[in-house]
Amino acid sequence: MSNQKKRNFQIEAFKHRVVVDPKYADKTWQILERAIHQIYNQDASGLSFEELYRNAYNMVLHKFGEKLYSGFIATMTAHLKEKSKLIEAAQGGSFLEELNKKWNEHNKALEMIRDILMYMDRTYIESTKKTHVHPMGLNLWRDNVVHFPKIHTRLLNTLLDLVQKERTGEVIDRGLMRNVIKMFMDLGESVYQEDFEKPFLEASSEFYKVESQEFIESCDCGDYLKKAEKRLTEEIDRVAHYLDPKSEEKITSVVEKEMIANHMQRLVHMENSGLVNMLLNDKYEDLGRMYNLFRRVTNGLLTVRDVMTSHLREMGKQLVTDPEKSKDPVEYVQRLLDERDKYDKVINTAFGNDKTFQNALNSSFEYFINLNARSPEFISLFVDDKLRKGLKGITDVDVEVILDKVMMLFRYLQEKDVFEKYYKQHLAKRLLSGKTVSDDAERSLIVKLKTECGYQFTSKLEGMFTDMKTSEDTMRGFYGSHPELSEGPTLIVQVLTTGSWPTQPAVPCNLPAEVSVLCEKFRSYYLGTHTGRRLSWQTNMGTADIKAVFGKGQKHELNVSTFQMCVLMLFNNSDRLSYKEIEQATEIPAPDLKRCLQSLACVKGKNVIKKEPMSKDIGEEDSFFVNDKFTSKFYKVKIGTVVAQKETEPEKQETRQRVEEDRKPQIEAAIVRIMKSRKILDHNNIIAEVTKQLQPRFLANPTEIKKRIESLIERDFLERDSTDRKLYRYLA
Amino acid sequence: MSSNKIVLTSSDGESHEVEEVVARKLKIVGPMIENDCPDKAIILQNVTGKILALVIEYCKKHVDDDQVDASEEAKKKLKDWDEEFMKSPDLETFVKLMQASNYLNGLLGLTCQSVEDSIKDKSVEEIRESFGLENEEEEAIPRNTLELLKTQDLRCFLNPNNCFRFFL
C-alpha cells in the first residue's frame, strides 16, 4: 500500500448505516425474528436472503451480536418446544414418522438460518468462543425434543420394539429407522451411545439370552450352530442398514457371548450331534461352521481342539490295542493311514488348515502309535507289502504320495531303531528273493529316511543295494572265466557284506552234489580275487528253480527255497523217505525242516510231496513220497517260504532283545560325548541330556542309562565326585 | 458446476455478469443462489459499483486457485499480481474494498495480509497517522488491539472483527 500523504482522513460511513441507535437493534432483530418464524412455518419463499443476511451482518457490526445470538436461541427453542408437543401427540405408528418429519424440517430450517447468520458465526461467535449456529441448533433439538421426557422414553421403546419385531421375522420400515437413528448419530456420539446404543445392546443381550436357552433345549448341535450363524449374519445386516458401523463389533460381541460362549461346553459335548459325532461322520459343513463361530470367542477353538484331541487319543488307543486289528499288519497300518487322511481332510476342509489343529493331530498320533510296541514292525511290513506287490500299476507320483504318508507315520515313532532293524530284515528278504516291484521306489524311500534321520541310519541299507550290484558284476566275472559251466545248473550268488545285512546264524545244510561242486568253484574264484575274506553260505536264505516231471508226464518248473531243493533232490534217488532219513541226509535243523516239509506236503495246490499220515502237522514218524498226481494250472509253481511275515512271539522277543543290546553302546556313546564337553554334570542332567540326544532314535530308559553310567565308571571313563555322590566327572 | 452466468448488481445499479464459479469465490454467493434468486441476479446493497468491479477482477484472477497444482512460476506471478492489486487503490478505495470483502466473505486472506504488511514496521503513532485515526477514537480502538496488531499476532489480525475496528 502506498505511503499516504493525506492526513486526518475521514472515512465516510456507508450511507444507510445508522450509528448506535438503540431502536435500531430492536427493529433489525424483529425483522430477523419474523423471518425465523416464517422459515419454521415453511413460509420462507417470500424472504430475501440478501436482505436478512445484511441485517444480521449489520447487527453484529454494530456490536449487537449478543442480542442476535440470544434471540436466535430463544426463538428456536420456542419453536422446538411446540414441535415436541405435536410429536408427542402423535398416535401409535405415526409417532416415529412425525418425529422424523419434524427432524427433517428442523434441519432444513437450521441450514437456512445458519446461512443468514453466517457473519455472526464467523466473527462474534468465534471471538466469544460460543457454540456455532449449526451445533447449537442440534443441541437445542436434542434438549427440547429428544430429551423431552415424554418423548425420550417413548422414542427408545418404539425403536427397540421395531428391532424386536424384525428379529421375530416381521418386516419393518428400515428407511425410517435409518433416518431416526442417524438423527442420534448427528446429535453426537455420546447421544447415540447413551440414548440408543447402550439400551439397544442391553435389550439384545436379554433377547439372545432367552433365545439361546430355548434353542439349546430343543436343537441338536448342527442346527443350533446354523441358527447362531443366521442371527449373527442378521445383526451384521441390521447394522449395515440402519445403525452406526461402530456398533457392529459391539452387537456381534453380544450375540457371540450369549449364543456361543455361554453354551460352548454343552454344544461341543452334545450327545449324538456334538463335535465327536461330526468328526466321525465327516460333517464338513457343520465342522466348518463350528470352527468359524467358535474362533470368535475366547477359548472357543481351544475347547474344540481339546475335545478333538481326547477323542483322537481314545480312538487311536482302541485302534492300536485291539487284538483283532493287530492280526494283519498291513491292514493295521492302512487303518492308521486312513484315519490320518480323514482328519487331515477335516482340518483342511473345515478348520482352514489351522496349524494348532495340525499340531494337535500330530501329537495325538504320536501318543497312541507308540502305545503298541509292534508299530515299528508293522509299518515296515506295510512298506514291504507295498514294495513287493502293492505298487504295481500305480504312477510314480502316487508312489511318492504313499511313501510320504508312510514317512509321516514313521516320524511319530519313538523307537525308530526298532523300525530300522525290521526294515533291514525285510529289505534283505526282498532283495535276495528279487521280489521288489520298483527299484526306484526303494531308493526313493531310502532317500526320505536319510533326510529324516541322517546318513548313519541309511548307510547300511545303501550298502545292501551296493552288494547286490557288486554281486551281479562278480557273477559276470565268474561265468566269464568259467565258460565250461554254461552247461549244467546255473548258480547265482549274492555276496553280502556282513556288517550291512541282518545277522543270521549260518544254518547247516547238505547241498546236493551238483550244487556243492558249483559252490566250491565259486568260492575259489572269489577268494582268488579277494584274499583275506571269509565266505559262509547262508542256506536259509536261498532259492532254487527246479524242473520236475511228475508221474503222468506233467512238466513243471518249481520255485523253492534252498532247503526245499535239498529235500526234493533226495527223491531223485528214492521213491519214499522217512522223516528221519530226510533229516539225516540234509542235516537241516528240526524246526526249519518241519516248516519246509509242511510247505511241500500240506499246502493245497502246492503239495508236490505226499505225506503219510495225512495229518496237518509234521511228525517225526511220518514218511514222504512224490505226489505223482500233482497238477497245476501254471507251468511255473512257486512254493518258496522266504516271505517276510509278522514275527511269532519268540521271534519278537529275540528281536527286541537284540534291539536292547544295540542300544547299550549308543547310550554309552551319548554319555561319553556329553561328559567330554561338560566335564562335570549331575545325575539328573545327564539323564535329561542323554534322553534328548537319543530321542531321534529311541526313548532311552533312565534305569538303563544309570546302568551304563555305572559301567563307564567301572571302565574308568567317568568317576563319582568324592563329596557329592550325584555328581560325575569325565576322566580324560 | 454448470457454466452458468450470474448477475451481480451493486448498490448503485451497476451490473456485472460473471461465471457462477467465479462468483462463488465470495462465500456469500452460494447461500444467496440456493435461498433466494431463481433467476440468478444478486443485488449487493452494501457494495458500490466501483468496488464490486475490483472484487470481481480479483475473483476472476483467482478462480483456479483450488485446482491444478500451479508451477512455482505461475504462483509467483499470481502473488505479484496480488501485491499490485493491493497497492494500486487509494486509501479510501482500499478501506471500502476491505469492508466489501468482509461483507461478501471473500478475499479476506489477501486484504488482512495487506493491512498487516502495511503496519508491521510502524509505531502506534505512525499507524494512527497513516490511517488518519484521531486520538479521540482511542476509545473505539482499544489500545491493546493496536499493540496486538503491532506485534503482528496474525490470528488476532486475520479476524476481520479486530481488523475492522479501525474503520468503524
Please outline what is shown here:
Chain A has 732 residues and is mainly α.
Structure report:
The complex is a heterodimer of chains A (732) and B (168). Chain A contains 30 helices and 9 strands. Chain A starts with 21 loop residues before the first helix and ends with a strand. With 732 residues, chain A is mainly α. Chain A has a 3-stranded mixed sheet with strand order 1-2-6. A 3-stranded antiparallel sheet of chain A has the order 3-5-4. In chain A, strands 7-9-8 form a 3-stranded antiparallel sheet. The longest helix of chain A has 30 residues, at 189-218. Residues 1-19 of chain A have low confidence and may be disordered. In chain A, β1 (543-549) and β2 form a beta hairpin. In chain B, α3 crosses α5. The model of chain B is unreliable at 136-168 (pLDDT under 50). A 3-stranded mixed sheet of chain B has the order 2-1-3. Chain B is mostly helical and 168 residues long. In chain B, β1 (5-9) and β2 (15-19) form a beta hairpin. Chain B has helices at residues 20-23, 29-35, 49-61, 72-87, 91-104, 108-119, 124-131, 143-150, 154-158, 160-163; strands at residues 5-9, 15-19, 41-43. Chain B has 10 helices and 3 strands. Classes of the chains: A mainly alpha (732), B mainly alpha (168). The A-B interface holds A 1-4, 6-12, 14, 16, 44, 47-51, 53-54, 57, 61, 112, 115-116, 118-119, 122-124, 126-127 and B 27-28, 31-32, 34-37, 42-46, 86-87, 90-92, 94-95, 99, 103, 105, 114, 117-118, 129-132, 134, 159-162, 164, 167-168.
Give me some keywords for this one.
heterodimer, A: 732 residues, mainly alpha, 3-stranded mixed β-sheet, 3-stranded antiparallel β-sheet, 65% helix, elongated, B: 168 residues
The average pLDDT value of chain B, as a whole number, equals: 70
Going across the major beta sheet of chain A, what is the strand order?
1-2-6
The helix content of chain A, as a percent range, equals 55-70%
* Overall strand count of chain B: 3
Structural class of chain A: mainly alpha
State the total count of DSSP E strands of chain A.
9
Structural class of chain B: mainly alpha
Spatial gap, N to C terminus of chain B: 38 Å
Rounded to an integer in angstroms, the radius of gyration calculated over CA atoms of chain A is 48 Å
| SS summary, helix count of chain A | 30
Poorly predicted segments of chain B: 136-168
Assembly type of the shown chains?
Answer: heterodimer
